[in-house]
Write a structure and sequence with these properties.
globular; 8 helices; alpha/beta
């Protein structure tokens, strides 16, 4: 089976537990205003790999990533669900821990088989308010929340990731609502609060894309700590 990959990081420490082999899939249905990888948006481009090519390379690093594993990221890995599912299945065969970092934007009926193969789902909740989510990304959060319901139903471990963007998602009332909503899910073992950064701004310029957040600064440390404390009130593990 073949699929399109944007890039590979063989020593990732920010995309799941431990040291990880991170595969950034090409293609994404969202257009997040804060995206730091807009070069992954376009579908059916990038470098074409077969699943055997990918897993063969992963196995070269098996001893190195034994405390971690493999993470499928992007772009949106579940946009290529069949390709992703086969990589995950082969990793499982070799007893390698797997994670999928997803926006949840792909309808569950199109990607359930890939979700089922993963050990951990890292779900990006852009905003608990579906209208704000649509304004921020081009799509509401309904499919993401349905995915979370499915993870709870199947008992699949989940990490929640939330990017704090001043003027957009740095809304304490929304954060409180999100934390309250997430508190009912037993499968959530961790909530990651991620400060907005501008490291990918140059890519927007290289691609001749309008970057609406040019004047937006990263959130203050005090604000991030306040947000973490709001989440902690609901007995959620937060980093």
């Amino acid at each position: 089976m073949e699929g399109y990959i944007h890039s590979i990081e063989t020593c990732g420490t920010l995309d799941g537990p431990g040291i990880r082999y991170v595969i950034f899939f090409q293609g994404c249905p969202l257009r997040c205003k804060f995206c730091h990888n807009p070069d992954t948006w376009k579908v059916n481009c990038g470098k074409k790999y077969t699943t055997s090519n990918v897993v063969e390379d992963i196995l070269k690093y098996k001893n190195f990533i034994k405390s971690g594993g493999v993470t499928l990221s992007g772009g949106e890995p579940l946009l290529q669900a069949d390709f992703a599912a086969e990589i995950l299945r082969l990793c499982k065969k070799h007893r390698i821990h797997t994670a999928v970092d997803t926006s949840g934007a792909i309808p569950l009926n199109s990607c359930k088989h890939a979700v089922d193969e993963a050990d951990l789902i890292m779900l990006d909740i852009k905003s608990i308010d579906t209208y704000k989510c649509r304004n921020l990304t081009g799509k509401g959060n309904e499919d993401a929340l349905k995915l979370l319901d499915y993870l709870e139903h199947t008992g699949k471990e989940a990490w929640i990731r939330h990017v704090v963007v001043p003027g957009i998602t740095e809304d304490y009332d929304d954060i409180e609502e999100m934390a309250k909503y997430l508190s009912k899910y037993k499968v959530i073992s961790r909530v990651e609060i991620l400060p907005f950064h501008k490291m990918g701004e140059y890519k927007w310029k290289e691609l001749n894309l309008k970057y609406e957040l040019e004047d937006t600064l990263p959130p203050e440390k005090e604000s991030i700590e306040k947000i973490k404390n709001i989440v902690r009130k609901y007995n959620l593990e937060v980093v």
